[in-house]
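Question (not urgent): is this output format expected?
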Amino acid sequence: MRSFTRALLVPVALIGPPAAQAHAFLDHANPAVGSTLQRAPATISIWFTQELEPAFSTVEVRDQSGSRVDAGDAQVDAGDATLLHATLKALPPGTYKVAWRVVSVDTHPTDGTFTFRVTA
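Got this back:
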C-alpha cells in the first residue's frame, strides 16, 4: 500500500500545484481607500498588483449625485505600468466614488470601487 501511495504522490510533487491566474488587483490608491481629506486632491492615482494594458484600463470618479468629476483623461503611467491616474476637477466637500476597470497585460480584467471624502 505504501509503494502505491508513493507512486501517486511522486508525480504530483514533480508537477507541483497549478499555476495561479494573474489578475491586476488594487494595491493602494491616493487618495487612500475610505480616506477623509481636508483638501481636495487634484488627481487620483491607483496602483495595481500587475502591469496594466493601457488601451483597456480606465478610472472614473463621480460625486454623490452621480456626476462625473474626473477630466476623462485616465491613463496608465508611462514609467510605471502598475499605476493608473486621472486628473480631477475642483472638488467641493462631499463623498466621491472611484470606479476602476483594468485589464492586466496577460488579458485578465478586474474592476472595483471605493470612496473617499473631502471635508473642506
